[in-house]
Specification:
Blueprint: E1 9-12, H1 13-20, E2 34-35, H2 38-52, E3 59-64, E4 70-71, H3 73-88, E5 95-100, H4 104-116, E6 120-126, E7 129-134, H5 138-150, E8 152-153, H6 158-161, H7 165-176, E9 180-182, E10 189-191, H8 192-195
Parallel strand pairs: 1-3, 2-4, 3-5, 5-6
Antiparallel strand pairs: 6-7, 8-10, 9-10
Length: 200
């Protein structure tokens, strides 16, 4: 097993939506940028999965919602929750995701769907500002915040940075849930936001 590829996969959901709806224009206006039916959400997810097929055994994807004006609960389920379920149900996870541009019009829908299914995801809520959306414990949230601030924690730093057993268990949980990446080569843990930073 190797580290993640150097170049994360950047996927513009607005562009994918335009392709799904047959919009031949190069840009997608807000009139076309609504994810509002399960059928549409399913088609968008299928298109995203097609793009991920050649990513290799491990991948990191930046899923960008910036050009999506509206998303309903069914599309949040199809495009976010089911995408996570497909790739994160393995041990260890085979793919990691950061969701960009999760603004107020779709934050509640994504949060609600993830919480109902016991899932969580790293999202960019404002430019350069990341958080965990969905279901997570207070301990997981605290440990994730420390990792996010530091960027990474080396294998020789884990006990110093996280002296409590519960915190180290939470760090392991973040990795297992696809909310942080542990290098199979060094065992260091890295915040996903640092791994997609140059794409933002």
């Amino acid at each position: 097993m190797t580290d993640l590829p150097r170049e994360p996969i950047a996927i513009d959901v607005g562009q994918v939506l335009g392709e799904v709806l047959g919009d031949v224009r190069k840009s997608v206006t807000s009139l076309y940028a609504g994810l509002v039916t399960r059928q549409t959400g399913r088609a968008v997810r299928a298109a995203i999965e097609t793009r991920l097929q050649g990513a290799g055994t491990l991948s990191l994807s930046l899923i960008d919602f910036s050009e999506v004006a509206i998303i309903d609960f069914s599309c949040a389920d199809e495009v976010v929750a089911k995408l996570l379920q497909r790739y994160l149900d393995r041990e260890p996870p085979s793919a990691f995701f950061v969701f960009r541009g999760v603004h107020e019009p779709h934050r509640d829908q994504i949060e609600t769907v993830l919480r109902r299914q016991g899932l969580a995801a790293v999202v960019e809520s404002q430019p350069g500002i990341f958080c965990v959306a969905g279901g997570h414990t207070e301990c997981e949230g605290r440990v994730w915040a420390v990792l996010e601030e530091r960027g990474s924690v080396g294998p020789d730093e884990v006990e110093r940075v996280f002296p409590l057993l519960d915190d180290r268990a939470a760090l392991d949980g973040l990795v297992q849930r696809g909310l942080a990446f542990r290098s199979p080569r060094t065992s260091g843990v890295t915040a996903l936001s640092r791994m997609v930073h140059h794409l933002l």
